Structures are given as structure tokens and as C-alpha cells.
Amino acid sequence: MLRRLFILFISVTILLILYPFSSSAAALPGDANGDNKVDGLDYVIWLNNYNKTTNNGISDGDFDNSGKVDGLDYVIWLNNYGSTDPGNKTPTPTQPVGNQPYRAFSADSYWNTPFPDNSPIDPNNAKYIADSQNSSHTQNFLQFTAAPGTSQAFGQPIYWAKASDKLYTITDGSRTVQVHIPANARPASGSDGQITIYDKSTDQVVGMSGASYNSSSDKWTVGGSIDRYILSSNGLDSNAAGSNDSRNTGHRGTTSAVRAVRVDEVQKGIINHRLACFWWATGVQTVNHYWPMVGDEGAKGGIVPEGIVIRIKPNVNLASKGLSQPALVIAKALQDYGCLITDNSGSGNRLKVELNEAAWQQIGLTYDALSPLPWSDWQFVKGGYQP
Fold first, then answer.
1. Same domain, yes or no, for 222 and 184?
2. What pLDDT was estimated at residue 94?
């Protein structure tokens, strides 16, 4: 099978070189959604329509206008992946640029390592799934916090600092950190007051809770806590087994780099790291929490311990679920990498998104975008398992 696919790829590539794909001047080959760039979202459109007949041409992923979405269209997309229209607007300077979204930490980091299909299932999996299906606790799907049309107070503001931004000294009483913070940075308006700062010039990602900014004194204060993780490290808290950097610390072992889905990741069609989920209420079983977490919030009335990972079952065919384009990108990450239960939400099982309602509205994300995936499609990986 692989040999046949390879031969198909080579054959079509030669044909495309000899007889370039023709289209109107306004159409970029492989650009299904018309955003003037060929990226992961276009792949998702092709995948959703694969093996279907269509009269919609490029907009359905039928890049050669043959009337059917097939492997030839995939090759066209692949050959043009990363292409942009010269008239395409320049990305905002606060966001990473390039064909792949930025990923914190080393390639072999726990956060960046997908789970094998045959990863061990937790002995309490059935109990935890049943808890998730209890309608008095939560809805029957993982919902998004700060999706368009819902409260924005608890979304995760994410900023990308430059070396030219002012260097602030911030402290939570036990940790003191120096970090560049953009002038327009502001924490979320909710009681958590959270914010994430990527400062690549100082090789760190810094999270704050209970954060506030006084524009008169140009001062940041932290009423909650600070977490700081070195971007070039493996991202494990210095108190967790296997950590390779003594400066990594905070939020009970969970870095801000995984605490929310970023806009640029979904725009580029790939989330290549583990995420963090908020559970309606966590609890204590044989242990209070599992590695890589180094602490927990204690028994909150639930039964699912912090530090355990939930993922979409490997045998679930995501393409057949009728997911929207952004939901499919996120679901793929939740299937490959899973979601670490790290916090209590107080209301339903949730996954945070970056605080940017307008961008999510344009992308088409809704709070219930994962509703086609009921909890019966999920499973808990054995607590503390390291892939």
C-alpha cells in the first residue's frame, strides 16, 4: 500500500511539473478556503470531503476540478503547502510566523510526545467516563471556555514579547521573574486574572494568575501565582522526575504553554503538543495527583485525579464525525496528545481557548464544536504513564 502511494505521489508530482495545475488568477492551488495561503485548514477541508463527488471544485478540496475529491487533490495540496498569495497580508508581529505554529520545549518533551495507540488505559477509566456522562456534573462533550458568544472573562490572553518590550520584574511573594511584556498586554477580566507571555528573547514562557496592571505607575502586580518554564528545556517542573532545568516552576507542574488552544495553531491546522483541561470537579483516588504534576487543588468533590490524561480513542474516525474545520484540528490533537486534567472549572468539563473572540468568530469555532464527540468516544490513559 505504501509503495503504491509513493508511486502515485511521484507520478503526479512529475505530471504537475510537466503540466502545471491551471486555475484562475485569483485561485491559489491547494487553497480551499480562499484565505490566500495553503495550510492545514485546507487539508482539513480535503479530508472532510475525501472520496466524495462534488460540483464545488476547489472549495471542497477538489483542486483539479475532476468532480471527485481524491488522492490527486491531496498531492496538489501537498506540493503547494506553505504557499501564499503575494497579496496576502503580513502576519501581525505579535504572532509566530512560518508554516508551522511555534511549539515550546524540546522535541522529546513529555508535552510534545504523542501517546501510542496501545497506551495503557487507567483501571478507573469506566468510572471516570461515567462521571463525565452524569448530566448533573457536566454536558456530554468537552466545551470551550471563551468561545464566541460566551463569556470572555476566563479566556487565556496570550502575548508574544519582543526584546525591545519593557523588561518588568514581577513577583508573587515566593517567585520573582524578569520578563519582557508588550505595552498592550492585559490579563483576563475574570477573577482568575490570568495571562501568558511568551518571551523568546529570554527563553521563557511566563504565566500569571491574579495579575493586574497599573497604567499610571506602569507596574504589574500578581495577587495569585507565577509559573515560569524555560522554552529550550523539556518543560517539566523542577520538582518533577525527569526535569532538566531547575528554573522550571509553578502552577503545580503545568506550564502556561499548554493551558489554552492558540488561534495561530488552529489557523495553521495543527496542534502538536498536549493540552490542559479543566474538570467540573477533581478528586482523590489512590494518589492525590499524577506525574508530571507536582501538586493539586485537593479533593474538590469529584473523583478524577489531577495529572491524569483523557484522550479521544485512537479508533474514532474523526473525519466521519461531521466536525467543523477548527474542531477537527483541535480534536486531532486531543486524539494524538490528549488533555491533562490540571484544574477545576466549577462548571462543566472545559478546554480554554486563547482570548480573541473576533479571531475565533472568523475561524468558525463554537463553544459546542466538539459535541459530535460524546464521552463514550474518550478514554483515560493510565495515570502517570509516560509515552
1. yes
2. 40
